[in-house]
């Protein structure tokens, strides 16, 4: 394919060189003439493993050249990758100035008729927040071109997952390829660029592709912060943190796995909250600051409050709650987030009915019974004997269980507002209904 790459920084330079190395005909574009001259001389404008040799080779064979002329680049390509920087503003917001400028230039070049025959596809590879492409960049393109994105112009988002220092290696052996496609033809054009590369390919809506890069980087930062905080606590307690983490990392069932990584409701139970509090207290006694660990329970509480807020937003007072124990298949109510949710709603004067097939007041014993009597002493009045009893009562139904009897009875369309805490199996269908809200979207 004939490809133009806008921006010859780390991402653009590596992308241009690697695509040329795959056999594409690539032209790099940059406003910095020094970078343009370096590339045309077969030299890399960035310091990166293997990039010098690769650029020298693809420039020598004629597969890669560079220019400062946007019109020339558009004329000589069928697909453009936008790799310009999106730095932070002083207040932390995303700076889209360079993105907007290059989008205007590409649109103007296309409008001048520089691209003859066939549809040009513009692919945004820069990191940008969800909504940036569709709400900001697509209108700019359409305004300058005088046509419709997805019809007259192809548009896609293709985030990169390149680590500085190993970016050439990462390009040829990617962890995944993500294509946010405005239409099928746009996605096909991007897919053709990477034909032959390993790794799973995900073709998703444009905003999803924009969000994935942030999910990755936020989690990477969280992992590093978690490991460092835990290491600091271990050191203060005289424990070898590397031994601890070696065992931690060996657990591929719960720790290094998809477990617990699906959006849903708050956590609870007799272990997680208690152990987090103990660990943070131990850190505080040892004068070790652990802001990530110290705010996990706060984050959990805030997420629970979001469910309360959803109920308040409906303006309705009769509430049905499906599920009460802290996890399915048990009657353990200790530190259950659903008990906390019921307590907060009851305290605000809501008329509540609760159904949980596993919870019977007469069967609650010991610490479990003591806990519920201290937190929700009116439980006997709130418990319902059947799903139907709750549905007949409720104007708002909070679904916190996957009990098949509950899921099969939930009405569609007309009926109570459904507040989904678990992501119902038919959530995608329900999202189009006016009476559906969710924390697990």
TrEMBL record:
Domain UDP-glucose/GDP-mannose dehydrogenase C-terminal residue range list: 320-427
InterPro entries reported in the protein's UniProt record: 6-PGluconate_DH-like_C_sf, GDPman_DH, NAD(P)-bd_dom_sf, UDP-Glc/GDP-Man, UDP-Glc/GDP-Man_DH_C, UDP-Glc/GDP-Man_DH_C_sf, UDP-Glc/GDP-Man_DH_dimer, UDP-Glc/GDP-Man_DH_N
Keyword Oxidoreductase in annotation: yes
Pathway linked to the protein: Glycan biosynthesis; alginate biosynthesis
Pfam families xrefs: UDPG_MGDP_dh, UDPG_MGDP_dh_C, UDPG_MGDP_dh_N
This enzyme's EC code(s): 1.1.1.132
Enzyme class: oxidoreductase
Record bears the keyword Oxidoreductase: yes
Annotated keywords: Alginate biosynthesis, NAD, Oxidoreductase
PROSITE patterns according to UniProt: PROKAR_LIPOPROTEIN (PS51257)
Origin superkingdom: Bacteria
Gene3D superfamilies reported for this sequence: 1.20.5.170, NAD(P)-binding Rossmann-like Domain (3.40.50.720)
NCBIfam families with a match to the protein in the record: NDP-sugDHase
Family from the record: Belongs to the UDP-glucose/GDP-mannose dehydrogenase family.
Protein name: GDP-mannose 6-dehydrogenase
Organism the protein comes from: Streptomyces hyaluromycini
Upper taxonomic lineage: Bacteria, Bacillati, Actinomycetota, Actinomycetes, Kitasatosporales
């Amino acid at each position: 394919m004939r490809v133009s790459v806008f921006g010859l920084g780390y991402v653009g330079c590596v992308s241009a060189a690697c695509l040329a190395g795959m056999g594409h005909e690539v032209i790099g574009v940059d406003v910095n003439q020094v970078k343009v001259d370096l590339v045309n001389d077969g030299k890399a404008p960035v310091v990166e493993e293997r990039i010098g040799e690769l650029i020298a080779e693809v420039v020598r064979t004629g597969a890669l050249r560079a220019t400062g002329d946007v019109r020339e680049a558009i004329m000589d390509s069928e697909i453009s990758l936008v790799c310009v920087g999106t730095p932070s503003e002083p207040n932390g917001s995303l700076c889209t100035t360079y993105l907007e400028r290059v989008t205007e230039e590409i649109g103007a070049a296309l409008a001048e008729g520089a691209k003859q025959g066939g549809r040009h596809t513009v692919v945004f590879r820069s990191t940008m927040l969800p909504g940036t492409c569709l709400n900001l960049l697509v209108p700019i393109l359409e305004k300058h071109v005088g046509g419709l994105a997805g019809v007259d112009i192809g548009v896609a988002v293709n985030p990169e997952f390149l680590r500085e220092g190993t970016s050439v290696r990462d390009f040829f052996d990617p962890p995944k390829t993500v294509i946010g496609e405005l239409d099928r033809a746009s996605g096909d054009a991007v897919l053709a660029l990477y034909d032959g590369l390993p790794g799973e390919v995900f073709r998703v809506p444009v905003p999803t592709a924009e969000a994935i890069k942030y999910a990755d980087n936020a989690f990477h930062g969280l992992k590093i912060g978690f490991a460092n905080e835990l290491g600091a606590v271990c050191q203060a307690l005289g424990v070898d943190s590397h031994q601890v983490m070696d065992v931690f990392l060996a657990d591929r069932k719960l720790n290094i796995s998809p477990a617990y990584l699906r959006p849903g409701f708050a956590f609870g139970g007799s272990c997680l909250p208690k152990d987090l509090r103990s660990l943070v207290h131990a850190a505080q006694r040892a004068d070790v600051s652990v802001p990530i660990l110290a705010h996990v329970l706060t984050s959990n509480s805030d997420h629970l409050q979001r469910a309360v807020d959803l109920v308040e937003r409906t303006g309705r007072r009769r509430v049905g709650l499906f599920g009460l124990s802290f996890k399915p298949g048990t009657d353990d109510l200790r530190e259950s987030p659903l008990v906390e949710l019921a307590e907060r709603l009851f305290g605000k004067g809501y008329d509540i009915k609760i159904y949980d097939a596993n919870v019977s007041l007469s069967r609650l014993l010991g610490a479990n019974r003591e806990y519920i009597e201290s937190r929700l002493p009116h439980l006997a009045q709130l418990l319902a004997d059947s799903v139907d009893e709750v549905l007949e009562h409720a104007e708002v139904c909070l679904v916190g269980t996957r009990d098949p009897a509950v899921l099969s009875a939930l009405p569609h369309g007309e009926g109570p507002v459904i507040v989904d805490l678990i992501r119902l199996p038919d959530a995608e269908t329900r999202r189009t209904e006016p009476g559906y809200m969710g924390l697990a979207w």
